[in-house]
Amino acid sequence: MCYAIPGKVEAIDDKFVTVNYFGERKKALNELADLAVGDYIYAQGGFVIEKISPLEAEDILATWRELFFELQDLDVRLSRVELEKQGMDQKLGHILDKVTAGKDLSREEYIYLLDLEDNSSKQLFYKTANFLRQRYHGNACCVHGIIEISNYCGSNCAYCGIAETVSGLQRYRMSRQEIIETAVEAVEKYGFKALVLQSGEDKGYTAGELAGIIKEIKVRAAVLLFISFGEMEKQELQELYNAGARGLLMRFETSNPQIYRQIHPGAELKDRLQVIRNAAELGYLIVTGGLIGLPGQTRDDILNDIYLAQELSSEMISFGPCIPHPQTPLAQLPLPPEDNILKVLALCRFIDPEKANIVVTTGLETISPNARRKGLLAGANSVMLNVTPLEYRKLYSIYPNRAHESETIAKQIAEIVSLLKSIGRAPTDLGRV
Ligand code: 5AD
After folding, report:
1. Closest ligand 1 atom number to CA of residue 291
2. What distance in angstroms lies between residue 159's CA and the mean position of ligand 1's atoms?
């Protein structure tokens, strides 16, 4: 199984290489010592992660080539937007014309989109986001894996089912060996090129132990590693970067400091943002975003959330619904409608059509069975598969009935590949433009 297409190095300019993928050129940062023009490589998130032999590369490319162009045709067909002017809301028509002409929209226009209610207007909004996704990103779709290594947590986020005060939950902490084996298997057996290691804010691992685990995974497997262990000191982030981690997944949850305070007793938004900024400064790729449907959250807050995700120069943006967990203070929170999240995905695409990588979250999939398809057709270009060992997956119960909580990795792969093929997407990650 292969999630990335090999590319051919065309030029090397200090640390950056230019890589050719079926005629399309992308830049990637190289950390391998022995790379030369003409070599074949895999790149992820803008990093060269592995050199592969020309024989192997050409073999993979030969099987991909035909399918790749076939998929591309289908994607282009599906993403064409016929702006059906007749009977269309004129203001919406004007906004969509403007955004497809590459112009920035005003705050008021973004709010107008968030407020759309009529179904055909919403569909046109999503379709236009899909059109922009295809224009700037082609049909590549990132498929990353996540391993939830521990559900111990020392924090008490009001929405979270693994918060420290949630009682009756069986807690687990994967051992060093289990984590390494799971990650190496995900890369070697299943072909993942990018993995996230996630846990609650667990003091049960020291930064030194985590660094040791990361180092060992990097020795044994060519993979882009993201960490998601909650808030950390800059020094610890540095230690994990030195060990080989290159991405940080950390949502700011909400851009509104008051809401933040209400749902994170004793914590401040600015401290969380500082962690994200520290990581960015150290060279980490940032994946961030927030929760939709928080108590007291307005559409202005949501628009601010999207702006904040963009301002933090996210490599990838992650927004999902806040799903009430019965054993948390937010047990009675109403579930936000699916459209509220699809609108956010589409708006993220509108705000940064060229650079944004937008993920369809498990949260969205949990509240809507067809969410992946809908999200990918509303501007998103990325998904994450859960590669946590099945015995632990159910215990990582941040909210109830998480999508894919009892599906094997093989089943998840078969499903995503079939979905992507049906909408003309290739499960590749061609890295940053
Ligand atoms: N609903 C949706 N997302 C949640 N998370 C935690 N609890 C919930 C919930 N009840 C998300 C938070 C956190 C991520 C790891 O999981 O956004 O950052």
Report:
1. 17
2. 7
Q: What average pLDDT does this structure show over 409-425?
A: 94
The answer to the question of residue 208 being in a domain is yes
d(CA 115, CA 399): 27
Distance CA 71, CA 62 (A): 15
Q: Specify the number of domains making up the chain.
A: 2
Residue percentage of the chain with pLDDT more than 90? 83
Q: Which of 275, 277, 286 is nearest to 245 (CA)?
A: 286
Structure tokens at 374: 């809908």
Here the tokens at position 79 are 């993403």
Q: Could you give the CA distance from residue 362 to residue 408 in angstroms, rounded to a whole number?
A: 15
Mean pLDDT across the stretch 360-379? 96
Domain encompassing residue 55: 3-77
**Is there a single domain that holds both residue 72 and residue 164?**
no
Q: State the Cα–Cα distance between residues 382 and 135, nearest whole angstrom.
A: 16
253 secondary structure, DSSP code: B
Look up residue 77 and give its two tokens: 């067909």
Higher pLDDT, 43 or 176: 176
Q: Tell me, yes or no, whether 383 and 301 share the same domain.
A: yes
Question: What residue owns the CA closest to ligand 1's atom 6?
Answer: 160
CA distance 319 to 338: 12
Query: What is the structure's pLDDT at 85?
Result: 57
Task: Write out residues with Cβ below 6 Å of ligand 1.
Answer: 159-161, 251, 253, 291, 320, 322-323, 325, 363, 398-399
Q: Which atom of ligand 1 is nearest to the CA of 198?
A: 15
Q: How far apart are CA 331 and CA 346, in angstroms?
A: 28
- Determine which of 114-118, 392-396, 425-429 has the lowest per-residue pLDDT on average: 425-429
Angle at 358 between CA 409 and CA 313, to 5 degrees: 125
Ligand 1: centre distance to CA 231 (Å): 15
Average pLDDT estimate for 51-66: 89
